[in-house]
Design goal:
This protein has helices at residues 3-18, 45-63, 68-71, 85-102, 119-141, 149-159, 163-168, 184-191, and strands at residues 109-112, 115-118. By secondary structure, the protein is mainly alpha-helical. It has a single domain (3-191), classed as Four Helix Bundle (Hemerythrin (Met), subunit A) (Up-down Bundle). Helix 1 packs across helix 6.
């Protein structure tokens, strides 16, 4: 499976979870145990989804090789979700997925805010972020995570060779021990510092 194909599955999984958020859940704070790099305050569910909308909004520019300055650093400032956050998020994701489908060179340089990378490595960074977050948010809103087997395998193939390098820079916390014969999703969760049994 190619990196863009994993991206499509991951973004589709995240959209599916966002579409199941109930109206009263948008303003709720994330529960203890939810993995996030932000530590100074507890964000709301809407803020987390908004961050993903912001990240997805940049994908088309990134994949055609634009720098943030060329695209306009403030291009996506402000509220991207508006009065209909589900529809807004789905529309942004649709544009990101179209850009991924149209990418014709996985060696094209992507100019991230934190450095330049080949497009395939950019996908490694963003695919797991979306797929794992789909799982985590499903738990938060009280639905059963439904990640396709192909997505789990794709994330495992991309994340497992790089886990310790990314853990060293703070992307993942310490691994959670999981049985070697556990389902691949559980092993992926444990590898990335998530307890497969976690419920909010």
């Amino acid at each position: 499976m190619t990196e863009p194909e994993v991206f499509l599955l991951a973004d589709e999984a995240l959209v599916d979870v966002v579409n199941q958020i109930r109206d009263e859940q948008w303003s709720s704070e994330l529960p203890p145990g939810f993995l996030m790099m932000q530590r100074d305050r507890i964000p709301t569910l809407r803020e987390v989804v908004h961050y993903h909308a912001y990240d997805d909004a940049w994908v088309p520019d990134m994949l055609v090789g634009r720098t943030m300055d060329e695209a306009g650093r403030d291009k996506f400032d402000g509220d991207l979700l508006g009065a209909d956050p589900k529809a807004s998020f789905a529309a942004i994701a649709q544009q990101a997925c179209a850009a991924a489908r149209n990418l014709d060179d996985l060696d094209r340089v992507v100019h991230c805010s934190f450095g330049d990378f080949p497009a395939r490595e950019y996908f490694w960074q963003i695919n797991g972020f979306r797929g794992l977050r789909a799982h985590d948010l499903a738990r938060v809103i009280g639905i059963e995570p439904k990640l396709p087997d192909e997505l789990v395998q794709g994330m495992w193939d991309e994340i497992s060779p790089n886990t310790e390098e990314w853990r060293a820079i703070g992307v993942f916390p310490a691994a959670v021990p999981v049985a070697e014969d556990a389902p691949l999703l559980h092993r992926l969760l444990g590898l990335t510092g998530r307890d497969p049994a976690w419920r909010p």
